[in-house]
């Protein structure tokens, strides 16, 4: 009930807060991936694209459904975290853990964009849950489930290796490690995970390990000194996000009539009524410590740029690490639930005012008031006014092409000229056969490369210039200028592939 209400309320909040904006590029990219089920998509493994594809078989390609997808994803993560907590503490503490996570910005407004990072809030808790189950039961069946969970996590993002490695450390350091390693569970899990990953490994080989090339090109730094600022930003970002839920949880433990005494009792009387599975709690503590310390140390050691978003899926165990050490009273649980509900309802009530304020203060910021959805409509009309086929391919940078794939009723496959780690959704041969629309953004520093590619591959194109803007509550956003190249389909392709019907 709590999780369902959380998903519904935050979907409504995001629909209002983001009403003046196009969806985030990552979300549009996930939608584009989901239009063609592949074993990988250039930059990432395929699971996030597969799930997006299945979701949009059931729901329309509309802004609201992307926010519903993101909140449904974090909702699934909360349910799995509840199941993890039940293996460590009693039901009251498990509920306290989930309420704390519901207040964690990652599980509400920071979780607005569905992408592989957000999906890891499902697959990484699933790996931890499967490990706790395998560690307890030590059966071949539990090993299979652990292997499946590990494969799903790796098929979401290779970053999952941080948690898989942390689980390995927890198992090796545990006093009961010999019972676990002498059982079939870990070995069956390893075999099952390898077997399930073989098709993706084959794909990696076929594309010359494009995701690894992408990671190396984008995140490798020249010297260790360059890693320090990104690591510091990552740590500050992580601590700031955790401060709110942990602070509110601590506040819920305090009796306002006697704050000092109530806090002392909460922290010094944890053993009374504390039903904790110490063997599983030890696993949780080691896993969380490893994923907290390992990535920053690894980034420094291997000279890697530490992106702040990489911390999104790594700290879902923090409340469970802390809750066994407090003496939890029923009133504290009620206070925390009330905080969650009141803050959520206040955010929902304030959302219309927040979005108007943001639009007014960011009126000239194309990141807030961008008009790629307007461009998609204009280009679709331009294509249909000339040809009887659907618009099949858009050639543009990722930032432009993914939005065209989402917002156009034809949902053209994006082709990114010159990209080493191509998603594989369209080929140059297919673009020339079916025809395509090329788009260059004159304000983009990469426009010379775009124009050069168009000169080589769209020499016979009809060239037009389109200007777009969007408005909200009478506030007009910045005007964007687009250089457009319309390449007609070949005669063999002209005719059978009819344009899509418009959606109301």
Can I get a quick summary?
By secondary structure, the chain is mainly alpha-helical. 60% of the residues lie in helices and 6% in strands.
Which secondary structure elements does this structure contain, and how are they paired or packed?
Blueprint: H1 2-17, H2 25-34, H3 47-58, H4 63-86, H5 91-103, H6 116-137, H7 140-154, H8 161-173, H9 177-181, H10 185-206, H11 210-219, H12 228-252, H13 259-268, H14 278-301, H15 318-322, H16 330-361, H17 366-369, H18 372-384, E1 393-395, H19 398-407, E2 413-415, H20 428-434, E3 436-440, H21 447-457, E4 462-468, E5 471-472, E6 475-476, E7 480-487
Parallel strand pairs: 1-2, 1-3
Antiparallel strand pairs: 3-7, 4-7, 5-6
Helix pairs in contact: 1-4, 1-16, 2-3, 2-19, 4-5, 4-6, 5-12, 5-16, 6-7, 6-8, 7-10, 8-14, 12-16, 18-19
Would you give an account of this structure?
60% of the residues lie in helices and 6% in strands. A 5-stranded mixed sheet has the order 2-1-3-7-4, sandwiched between helices. The radius of gyration is 25 Å and the shape is globular. α5 packs across α12 and α6 runs antiparallel to α7 (140-154). It is mostly helical.
């Amino acid at each position: 009930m709590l999780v369902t209400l959380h998903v519904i309320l935050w979907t409504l909040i995001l629909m209002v807060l983001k009403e003046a904006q196009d969806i985030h590029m990552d979300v549009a990219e996930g939608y584009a991936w989901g239009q063609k089920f592949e074993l990988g998509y250039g930059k990432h493994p395929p699971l996030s694209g597969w799930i997006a594809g299945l979701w949009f078989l059931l729901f329309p390609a509309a802004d609201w459904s992307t926010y519903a997808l993101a909140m449904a994803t974090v909702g699934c993560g909360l349910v799995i975290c509840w199941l993890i907590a039940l293996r460590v503490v009693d039901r009251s503490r498990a509920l306290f853990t989930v309420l704390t996570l519901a207040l964690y910005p990652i599980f509400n407004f920071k979780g607005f964009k569905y992408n592989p990072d957000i999906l890891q809030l499902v697959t990484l808790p699933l790996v931890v849950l499967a490990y706790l189950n395998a560690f307890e039961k030590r059966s071949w069946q539990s090993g299979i489930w652990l292997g499946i969970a590990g494969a799903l996590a790796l098929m979401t993002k290779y970053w999952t290796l941080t948690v898989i490695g942390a689980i390995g450390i927890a198992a090796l350091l545990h006093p009961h490690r010999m019972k676990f390693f002498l059982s079939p569970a870990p070995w069956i899990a390893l075999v099952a995970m390898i077997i399930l990953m073989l098709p993706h490994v084959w794909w990696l080989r076929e594309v010359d390990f494009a995701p690894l090339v992408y990671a190396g090109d984008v995140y490798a730094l020249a010297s260790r000194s360059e890693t320090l600022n990104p690591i510091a930003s990552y740590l500050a970002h992580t601590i700031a996000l955790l401060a709110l839920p942990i602070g509110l949880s601590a506040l819920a433990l305090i009796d306002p009539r006697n704050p000092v005494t109530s806090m002392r009792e909460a922290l010094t009387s944890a053993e009374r009524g504390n039903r904790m599975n110490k063997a599983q709690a030890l696993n949780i503590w080691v896993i969380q410590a490893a994923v907290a310390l390992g990535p920053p140390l690894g980034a420094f050691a291997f000279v890697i740029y530490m992106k702040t978003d990489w911390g999104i899926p790594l700290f879902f165990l923090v409340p469970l690490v802390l809750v066994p050490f407090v003496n939890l009273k029923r009133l504290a649980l009620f206070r925390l639930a009330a905080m969650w509900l009141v803050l959520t309802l206040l955010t929902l009530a304030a959302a219309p005012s927040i979005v108007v304020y943001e639009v007014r203060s960011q009126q000239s910021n194309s990141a807030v008031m961008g008009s790629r959805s307007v461009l998609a409509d204009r280009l679709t009309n331009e294509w249909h006014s000339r040809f009887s086929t659907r618009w099949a391919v858009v050639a543009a940078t990722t930032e432009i092409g993914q939005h065209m794939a989402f917002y156009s009723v034809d949902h053209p496959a994006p082709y990114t000229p010159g990209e080493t780690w191509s998603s594989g959704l369209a080929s140059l041969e297919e673009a020339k056969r079916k025809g395509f629309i090329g788009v260059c953004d004159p304000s983009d520093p990469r426009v010379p490369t775009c124009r050069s590619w168009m000169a080589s591959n769209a020499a016979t194109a009809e060239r037009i210039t389109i200007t777009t803007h969007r408005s909200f509550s009478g506030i007009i956003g910045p005007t964007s200028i687009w250089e457009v190249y319309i390449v007609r389909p070949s005669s063999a392709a002209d005719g059978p592939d009819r344009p899509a019907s418009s959606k109301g």
